[in-house]
Design goal:
Helix 2 (37-52) crosses helix 4 (74-94). This protein has a domain at 102-326. The chain is an alpha/beta fold and 332 residues long. The protein has helices at residues 12-35, 37-52, 58-68, 74-94, 116-121, 123-126, 140-148, 162-173, 185-196, 227-235, 268-289, 314-318, 323-326, and strands spanning 110-113, 129-132, 153-156, 179-182, 201-204, 211-217, 220-224, 239-248, 251-256, 307-308. The strands form two sheets. Strands 1-9-8-2-5-3-4 form a seven-stranded mixed beta sheet, sandwiched between helices. The chain is globular, with a radius of gyration of 19 Å. The protein contains 13 helices and ten strands.
């Protein structure tokens, strides 16, 4: 079973634009499929370095990375940016080959480490929330989790182009039984249902929200969703960080980290703030371990137009447990 959003039918002109975009994307995916995984990934990396790195999209990534690592020289930042685009180009190419990745077999491309942390966290009896960020090829974390046999669901943000979104969802379903849960009211209800059934739910929690609470991230306050903290506190679920690291070509190490340790104080609003900060600090730690493999092109920190809620505003976001989950937690 999967929850899929059903958006209103777009205007004719927008549909034409979506079709044109989708045609180009499907052509690219067809070429990547014909090349095979290794050559496609290498070509994607080449495109990232030669086409995307020199483009204007690098400006924001350069600003973000420079602010996050003031101790690094300009040359070091540029080297990291080049590696970032190599990784992102490979990620795009690898969408055509989800069925080639496995944690099993003599030539497994995914190594799943420290899975004993699941047993220690009691995930098989109590469920848990598996949290991560846009690291390496973040899509492949769900492949490892599914093939390991955890089941449960994964929250994702639908791609803007509905034709591309449908295709991407189909690729994800090739990897196994993890339930795809689109962000939105229906998805929110489904997340609560799975957690009540003691089934795990996977979330990417490193994106900016339209509204959020302040959490220090690389030395600057960032708009951060309180949804994982709210769910963990309300449902009594552990938060288990998951990381992914590209270790060469199309090979990855996925690691299950020990669950976050947090003792509620009884002050709900303060607990949401404190746990959100703990989650954010862990995500920063994972990024610092491999900074070139994170999505630095994302507008993660607030601009003058953004609204960052105060402590008093937490209840408006989390009082009914719905709005918080509609923003900021996703698969892509």
């Amino acid at each position: 079973m999967s929850e899929t959003a059903v958006p209103p039918k777009p205007p004719f002109g927008l549909r034409l634009r979506y079709l044109a975009q989708a045609a180009g994307f499907f052509l690219l995916m067809g070429v990547m499929r014909l090349l095979g995984l290794d050559r496609a990934s290498a070509l994607g990396g080449f495109m990232g370095r030669r086409i995307f790195y020199p483009s204007g999209m690098t400006k924001r990534a350069r600003e973000n990375m420079s602010a996050a690592f003031p101790e690094k020289s300009a040359a070091e930042i540029e080297m990291l940016l080049l590696e970032m685009w190599d990784n992102l180009g490979r990620v795009i190419a690898e969408y055509a080959h989800f069925d080639k990745f496995s944690i099993h077999g003599p030539d497994a491309r995914l190594e799943f480490r420290d899975t004993d942390n699941f047993q220690r966290a009691g995930i098989y009896e109590e469920g848990a929330m598996l949290i991560s960020g846009h690291l390496a090829n973040w899509e492949l974390m769900q492949v490892a989790i599914t093939q390991f046999g955890l089941g449960g669901g994964v929250v994702y943000r639908p791609v803007n182009n509905p034709y591309v979104d449908s295709w991407v969802a189909k690729q994800r379903r090739k990897t196994g039984p993890l339930e795809l849960i689109a962000k939105g009211p229906r998805g929110t209800r489904r997340v609560f249902t799975l957690l009540r059934q003691n089934r795990p739910v996977c979330l990417l929690v490193d994106q900016k929200t339209n509204e959020g609470i302040p959490a220090a991230f690389f030395g600057r306050d960032a708009l951060t969703t309180p949804a994982p903290a709210v769910l963990a506190l309300k449902m009594g679920k552990k938060l288990i960080p998951i990381s992914s690291r590209r270790v060469g070509g199309s090979r990855f190490v996925v690691t299950a980290h020990p669950p976050l340790i947090f003792t509620p104080s009884g002050d709900y609003e303060n607990d949401v703030m404190s746990l959100t900060q703990l989650i954010t600090a862990k995500i920063e730690e994972l990024i610092r371990a491999n900074p070139a493999q994170w999505l630095w092109i994302h507008r993660r920190w607030p601009t003058s137009r953004d609204h960052m809620t105060s402590k008093r505003g937490i209840q408006s976001l989390t009082g009914n447990g719905v709005r918080a989950e509609r923003d900021g937690s996703s698969l892509i």
